[in-house]
Amino acid sequence: MKKAKIVIGLGFGDEGKGITTDFLCNEYPEAMVVRFSGGQQAAHTVMYEGKKHVHSSFCSGALRGLPSYFSEHCTIYPSFLYNEQKELEKKNGNTTLYIHPLAKVTTPFDVWHNRNNVKNLSHGSCGKGIGATMKRNEGPYKLYAIDLVAPKPLLIERLKSIANYYGISDSEDLQNEVSYFLQSVAAIDWKIKDYSFLKQYETIIFEGSQGVLLDMNHGVFPNVTYANTTAKNAIEICNKLQIDDIETFYVSRSYVTRHGNGWMLNEEEITLINNEEETCTYNEYQKHLRFGKLNLELLLYAKSIDQIYNPSTKNNIVITCLDQLSENIDMNVLQTNFNTIYGSYSPESKNFKKLTI
């Protein structure tokens, strides 16, 4: 029987979805890893055999050697994808990436708009064109993965239309970005496959993006992401593939983080004792990573939101970064809500442990 393992963040992102995915890849080395939301804004850090990689345009099984698949609910930015492909090749990672034909393509014009739109920046944009791409695709100015294998003159005409959509005039910097975008498109071996391709895999690991508390329908507005960060999209794909054996791995740090503006419960300065592997520390658009104490009531609320869409009866929780706090978490509060509680102490999956309570 075919199986699905779904990784969901219960916070505002940065919970440890990448290392949880890597842990499952170690358990199921013949699996396919599928991204079902988000895109190039991901920063999922994995360490394997002394190598470290931050997965954005590839799934978090790539460093370990598993292939990646980006669904129609994802965005791809060829310029970033090509850069990461070259990084992974140097680390002997798996750069095999399959993409649904209707995955949405980010262009340099989308990135420019995200980085120069005051409203986007005030909402906490990561500056990588995600929101602009999703919004643009709601109208007639669409660009899909399948369009990247069209004849080059047609692709260029589409790009001109998108530039006109944003009202962008000639810019030397943007010309350079567009030139590199086209160079990247030409250099990548595009593997465009619909969901029927996934039927050959016995196990599919669905890697979530961001967290339930940033969901476009359930987060605290206006500071939400332009995506369904619950298991909604993953379950839809499971239904198409007729997968009924579904197990969910809910992920949270042992404290709360948020990158960008917006509401946050129990925000305060937290002293971390082992933080050298932190990936999301600062960027120009979201500024510094914010911290707060873990609220178990909020954690369980996020899980209840996910289960509106997710019928899985096998539910586990992974608490990450347990080496960064000196105080313990009372896991007894969670006892009746999860099949298994795991703990993680570093970005390496070999450090995962079942926690007894």
Describe it.
- The chain is an alpha/beta fold.
- The chain has 2 domains: 262 residues, Adenylosuccinate Synthetase, Chain A, domain 1 (3-Layer(aba) Sandwich); 84 residues, no CATH class.
- It is built from 9 helices and 18 strands.
- The strands form 5 sheets. The protein has a 10-stranded mixed β-sheet with strand order 9-7-5-2-10-1-11-16-17-18, sandwiched between helices.
- Helix 3 packs across helix 5.
- It starts with a strand and ends with a strand.
Write the layout of secondary structure elements.
Elements: E1 3-9, H1 17-27, E2 32-35, E3 44-48, E4 51-55, E5 68-70, E6 75-76, H2 78-90, E7 97-99, E8 104-105, H3 108-116, H4 118-123, H5 130-136, H6 152-166, H7 172-187, E9 191-192, E10 203-207, H8 232-241, E11 245-253, E12 256-258, E13 282-283, E14 287-288, E15 290-292, H9 296-306, E16 314-320, E17 340-343, E18 353-354
Parallel strand pairs: 1-10, 1-11, 2-5, 2-10, 5-7, 6-8, 7-9, 11-16, 16-17
Antiparallel strand pairs: 3-4, 12-15, 13-14, 17-18
Helix pairs in contact: 2-7, 3-5
CATH topology of the largest domain: Adenylosuccinate Synthetase, Chain A, domain 1
Number of strands: 18
CATH class of the largest domain equals Alpha Beta
Q: How much β-strand is present in the residues?
A: 15-25%
Largest sheet: 10 strands, mixed
CATH architecture of the largest domain: 3-Layer(aba) Sandwich
CATH superfamily of the largest domain: Adenylosuccinate Synthetase, subunit A, domain 1
Oligomer: single chain
- Note the gap between the termini: 32 Å
Tertiary shape: globular
How are the strands of the biggest sheet laid out side by side? Answer: 9-7-5-2-10-1-11-16-17-18
- Helix and strand element order: EHEEEEEHEEHHHHHEEHEEEEEHEEE
Share of residues in helices:
25-40%
Given helix and strand content, the structural type is alpha/beta
* Individual helix count: 9
Low-confidence stretches: none
What count of domains describes the coordinates? Answer: 2
Q: Averaged pLDDT, please?
A: 91
Gyration radius, in Å = 20 Å
